[in-house]
Amino acid sequence: MEQLHIVDACREQHFRDMSLLHALGWRAAYRDSIPADYMAREITDERWVPVFRQNYGEGRYHGLLLYNGEQPLCCATYGPARVDQSAGDTICDFSSPDLAAWGELVSLYAHPDCWGQGYGSVVMEEVLRRLSAAGYPGCFLYVLRENDRAQRFYEKHGFTWDGHSLNVNLASDTTLTDLRYCRLF
Length: 185
Prior knowledge:
Blueprint: E1 4-8, H1 12-29, H2 36-42, H3 49-58, E2 62-68, E3 71-80, E4 84-85, E5 94-95, E6 103-110, H4 119-133, E7 138-144, H5 148-156, E8 160-171, E9 174-184
Parallel strand pairs: 6-7
Antiparallel strand pairs: 1-2, 2-3, 3-6, 4-5, 7-9, 8-9
C-alpha cells in the first residue's frame, strides 16, 4: 500500500535524497548523450547537496520531495526566475530577463525505476499550484534537447518551447542544448 506524501526540503536527509534523485535521473536520461567519464567524475550522488542546503538557507528556491513512506520517488526545485545566473555551481549561464516576473521550475527528477508511474505529475502539479498561488503569471523551465522523454512530459503539462535556447558546454568535446519551455497560468 502506497503512503505518498509531499514534503518541503528542509533537512540534511532531504538534500541528500534530492541530490541522489538528480544523479540517478542524469545517469539514466543522458547515458547516450554525455560522455561516461564526465558522468563518473561530475554526476555524483552528493553533487547537489550543497546547492540544496544553500537554497534552503537563502529561502529563494524551494525543494519539494514526494515520498512513499521513507522512499524518495521524485523531487523538484522551484522559485523566481533565474534572470542572470552565471555558471558556478551550475553547468551553464541562465539568463531570462524577459521572464523576470515568472516562476521557474529549476529541476524535476524522478527515480528512474518510477518513470511513467505518475509521480512526476504529482510533483509538477504541486509546483505549478504553488507558483500560481504566489502570483507568478506563468512558469518556465529548461530541458535538454537530447531529452525527448522530458520534453513530452512537459508538453503533457501544458508547456511549449518558446524558441529560446542556450548551449551547455560540459566538456571541450561535448555541447548540449537547453530549450526553454513556458506555460502561462
